[in-house]
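Design request, C-alpha cells follow.
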C-alpha cells in the first residue's frame, strides 16, 4: 500500500477522475432507474385548466343557501353552457371548472332533493379549485437534468408528452472476484473453504445501476491478467474484489499497475477497507478488499456515488441522522459503520466483530461515516451517511 490518505481525499480523487457516459434515447418505459440527460419542461401550464379537486357542485358565488342543479359536468367533458342565475353544475373530480364558476362545495356539504341543492357547510370562493398554472408555468423546468428517473419522473414525462427520454447509457461493469478458498454457492465446501458471497452481494446492489459481467478467479496472476485485459477492452468500470492487500497471493496491484501505472491511491485511513485502491483508467478501476463487510462498506461509500456521477447525476447528498445509542469512534481511523434506520429515524449501529462478520450487519440499510476522535458520541449525536441504501 501507499501512504494512507483521508477518506475525503480519496473521494475527491475518484470524483476528479471519473468520465461521463454517453447519452442515448430510450422509450419512456425503459427509462426507470436511468439518469436524465435532458430537462423535462412543461409544454403547457400545469394544470392546463381550472380543475375540480372534489366531487360536488360548482356555481358563481351567492349568499343564497340553495341553488338549482343545471346538470352534470364530468371529467373530460367540454365546457358547458353558461349558468343562469341561481344555477349550479354537479361536477366531478378532475373536471374543468367552468369559467363562470368560482365556488365549489363538496357533496359532503350538500343535500340534493328534487333538483335543488341545499348547502350546509361554509361556502368559500376558490376552495377546491386547482387554478391554471398553479403547479407550473408553460416552459418551466419540471425535472432537472441529472435526476435519476423514478416512478414520479415517469409520470411527469408522460404528462408532457415525452414518449422517449435522453438518458445516460447504463454502465458496462466487469466484476472480478478472487480467492482460492471461495467455492460456488451450490458446492459443498471443505472445512477450509467458504462459499462465494461477495459476488452475489455486489451483483444484487448493481442490478439497478448497470449491466454486470461477473467472473470469479483463482489467486493466479496470469489468469487475473487475462481477465483484466478483456475487461479493459469491454467495460466502462471495473470492480475487483480481494487480492489488494499485502499477501503473497495478492496479485491485483501488480497486474493493474503493469497496464495502467500507479494507482490514484492505495490505502485509506479508514476501517474497514483500509487497502482500497483506485485507478483512473480508462476505464476507472476500483480494487476492493475481500472481507465481506469491507466490500459492503467501501462499495456503498465510494462506488455507488461514482456510478451516479459517471451517469451525469448530481452528487449524492449526505444525510444527517441522530445516533440511537452511544458509540466510541476509532481514535485515528474513519469508521465506515453499517447501520439501520429505525422507525424513529435514528441510526442504529450494527458494528461487526471484524470485517469478515457479515452476519452481524444483516438488516443494515446505510453506511455511517464516523470521523476519528477520542470522545464517546452520546445517543442523539448527528452522524453522516450517504443517501444510498444498501
Amino acid at each position: 500500500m501507499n501512504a494512507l490518505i483521508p477518506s475525503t481525499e480519496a473521494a475527491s480523487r475518484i470524483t476528479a477522475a471519473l468520465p461521463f457516459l454517453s447519452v442515448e434515447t430510450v422509450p419512456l418505459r425503459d427509462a426507470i432507474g436511468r439518469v436524465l440527460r435532458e430537462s423535462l419542461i412543461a409544454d403547457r401550464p400545469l394544470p392546463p385548466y381550472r380543475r375540480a379537486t372534489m366531487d360536488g357542485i360548482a356555481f358563481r358565488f351567492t349568499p343564497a343557501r340553495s341553488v338549482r342543479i343545471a346538470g352534470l359536468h364530468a371529467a373530460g367533458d367540454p365546457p358547458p353552457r353558461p349558468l343562469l342565475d341561481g344555477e349550479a353544475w354537479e361536477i366531478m373530480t378532475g373536471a374543468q371548472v367552468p369559467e363562470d364558476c368560482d365556488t365549489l362545495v363538496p357533496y359532503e356539504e350538500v343535500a340534493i332533493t328534487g333538483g335543488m341543492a341545499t348547502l350546509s357547510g361554509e361556502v368559500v370562493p376558490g376552495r377546491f379549485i386547482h387554478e391554471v398554472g398553479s403547479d407550473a408555468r408553460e416552459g418551466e423546468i419540471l425535472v432537472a437534468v441529472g435526476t435519476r428517473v423514478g416512478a414520479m419522473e415517469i409520470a411527469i414525462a408522460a404528462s408532457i408528452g415525452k414518449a422517449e427520454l435522453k438518458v445516460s447509457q447504463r454502465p458496462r461493469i466487469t466484476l472480478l472476484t478472487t480467492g482460492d478458498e471461495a467455492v460456488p454457492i451450490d458446492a459443498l465446501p471443505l472445512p477450509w473453504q467458504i462459499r462465494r458471497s461477495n459476488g452475489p452481494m455486489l451483483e444484487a446492489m448493481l442490478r439497478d445501476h448497470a449491466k454486470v459481467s461477473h467472473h470469479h478467479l483463482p489467486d493466479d496472476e496470469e489468469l487475473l491478467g487475462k481477465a483484466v485485459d478483456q475487461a479493459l477492452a469491454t467495460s466502462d468500470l471495473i470492480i475487483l474484489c480481494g487480492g489488494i492487500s499485502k499477501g503473497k497471493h495478492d496479485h491485483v496491484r501488480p497486474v493493474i499497475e503493469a497496464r495502467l501505472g500507479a494507482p490514484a491511491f492505495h490505502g485509506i485511513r479508514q476501517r474497514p477497507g483500509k487497502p482500497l485502491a483506485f485507478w483512473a483508467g480508462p476505464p476507472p478501476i476500483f480494487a476492493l478488499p475481500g472481507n465481506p463487510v469491507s466490500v459492503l462498506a467501501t462499495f456503498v461509500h465510494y462506488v455507488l456515488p461514482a456510478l451516479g456521477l459517471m451517469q451525469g447525476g448530481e452528487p449524492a447528498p449526505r444525510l444527517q441522522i441522530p445516533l440511537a445509542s452511544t458509540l466510541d469512534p476509532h481514535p485515528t481511523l474513519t469508521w465506515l459503520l453499517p447501520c439501520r434506520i429505525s422507525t424513529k429515524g435514528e441510526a442504529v449501529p450494527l458494528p461487526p466483530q471484524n470485517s469478515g462478520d457479515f452476519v452481524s450487519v444483516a438488516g443494515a440499510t446505510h453506511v455511517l461515516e464516523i470521523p476519528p476522535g477520542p470522545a464517546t458520541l452520546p445517543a442523539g449525536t448527528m452522524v453522516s451517511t450517504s443517501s444510498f441504501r444498501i
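Comment from the thread starter after seeing the answer: thanks! The chain is about 20% helix and 30% strand.
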